[in-house]
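ARCHIVE CARD
CATEGORY: sequence design from structure
SOURCE FIELD: tokenized fold
FIELD CONTENT:
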């Protein structure tokens, strides 16, 4: 049976190897295209200079100085047609959000920025002053990252100051969302873990321990979508990843995400991404990330 073509996940075990604090900042320069990839850590990418096209599963957009992305584990992206694209990438382990930064879940500005369950990278456009401030904090973190555990407090402090520069520029639709309560986290994890299951509102309500109305209301407030629309979006995203990173038959990909009828899968996919699955599959200018040169991807 056909299967994965390449390894596209960039892993924290390599990025943070040898670092006492799981944070890493780099300042890469890109020209041309970078492969589609994802990571198992959180990345904040600040565009300092240059131009490029930023690709996510949802499409492409032109980017330039001030554009900033908060990229959560499982989000896919690539930079294409880069022209002197200078980035500051601030990477840190998502474990911090359950330990030192756990309080941010309840913060009205930082919660929506940091505590996302999935989806496309969150894009912000900073003012010139905010960009200068954020780059300053990223460079301070970069200077400290090799110091070791003695710099832990300072690293956390500079990360929070960087986030403070970003928070005012988060889209209103994101900052208006409530923090995700633990029962709803269980529901989202269950949906994401078994996309092909024919879920019902009643089953999800039982899983959360809520009545149907409370589930629907809380789900929409926290995610911006009702349960059915969220599930369809997540199915489409999972299908998009499989189309771009495997040679599995299109019909089989649809069945794996819960759309077993090929014609129905094609309709649903087109409604989400604007093109048919087969056409979507052939759009990348270069293949997904491979493990060619050790640690080369760290410079992205």
């Amino acid at each position: 049976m056909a299967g994965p073509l390449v390894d596209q996940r960039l892993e924290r075990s390599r990025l943070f190897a040898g670092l006492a604090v799981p944070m890493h900042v780099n300042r890469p320069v890109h020209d041309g295209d970078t492969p589609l990839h994802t990571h198992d850590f959180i990345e904040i990418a600040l565009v300092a200079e240059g131009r490029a096209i930023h690709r996510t599963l949802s499409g492409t957009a032109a980017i330039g100085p001030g554009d900033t992305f908060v990229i959560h584990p499982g989000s896919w992206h690539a930079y294409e047609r880069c022209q002197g694209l200078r980035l500051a990438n601030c990477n840190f382990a998502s474990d911090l959000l359950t330990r030192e930064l756990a309080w941010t879940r309840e913060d009205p500005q930082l919660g929506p920025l940091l505590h996302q369950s999935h989806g496309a990278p969150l894009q912000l456009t900073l003012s010139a002053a905010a960009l200068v401030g954020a780059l300053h904090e990223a460079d301070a973190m970069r200077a400290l990252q090799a110091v070791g555990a003695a710099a832990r407090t300072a690293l956390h402090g500079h990360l929070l100051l960087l986030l403070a520069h970003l928070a005012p520029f988060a889209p209103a639709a994101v900052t208006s969302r409530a923090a995700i309560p633990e029962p709803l986290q269980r529901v989202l994890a269950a949906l994401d873990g078994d996309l092909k299951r024919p879920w019902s509102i009643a089953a999800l309500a039982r899983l959360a321990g809520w009545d149907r109305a409370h589930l629907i209301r809380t789900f929409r407030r926290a995610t911006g979508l009702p349960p059915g629309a969220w599930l369809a979006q997540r199915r489409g995203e999972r299908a998009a990843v499989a189309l771009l990173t495997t040679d599995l038959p299109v019909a089989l990909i649809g069945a794996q995400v819960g759309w077993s009828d090929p014609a129905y899968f094609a309709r649903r996919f087109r409604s989400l991404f604007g093109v048919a699955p087969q056409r979507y599959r052939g759009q990348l200018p270069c293949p997904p990330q491979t493990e060619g040169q050790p640690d080369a991807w760290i410079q992205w």
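CARD ANNOTATION: The two ends are 33 Å apart (CA to CA). The first strand starts at residue 9 and ends at 10.
SHELF: design records, drawer C
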